[in-house]
Specification:
With about 110 residues, this protein is mainly beta. The strands form two sheets. A six-stranded antiparallel beta sheet has the order 1-2-3-10-5-8, with no helix packed on it. It has a four-stranded antiparallel beta sheet with strand order 4-9-6-7, with no helix packed on it. Strand 2 and strand 3 form a beta hairpin. The chain is globular.
Length: about 110
């Protein structure tokens, strides 16, 4: 499967938070994020493990009550069912990989 970034629909799920659903394999799914400085993904949980890579900008991540700050080139792993949130530090671009497949996309639609 080939995925062409410029052909994938962009969806704004919160003010300044734009995601692109890149696709899924048999047991994982991948998202691309662009977040404006200061934009937020509120505290939430999901049944999937989450691996993320910050391409540019950065995040303040609250994970299970602990606060972290990461920047370009840093990565994060969030276990399944652990509460977490993100705030963009600068204009931020990132990739997230989820395993196993999530049942819903960040916009609430079925995966």
């Amino acid at each position: 499967m080939m995925i062409y970034h410029d052909k994938i629909e962009k969806k704004e799920i919160n003010p300044g938070v734009i995601f692109q659903y890149l696709g899924k394999g048999k047991e994982m799914m991948i998202y691309h994020w662009n977040m404006a400085d200061g934009s937020e993904v509120a505290m939430h949980t999901h049944d999937s493990e989450q691996f993320g890579y910050c391409i540019s900008g950065g995040f303040i991540i609250v994970e299970d009550g602990k606060k972290y700050q990461i920047g370009a080139g840093d990565a994060y792993i969030i276990p399944a069912n652990v509460p977490h949130s993100f705030v963009a530090v600068g204009d931020t671009e990132a990739i997230d990989i989820f395993h196993p497949l999530r049942t819903t996309l960040p916009d609430g639609n079925p995966a």
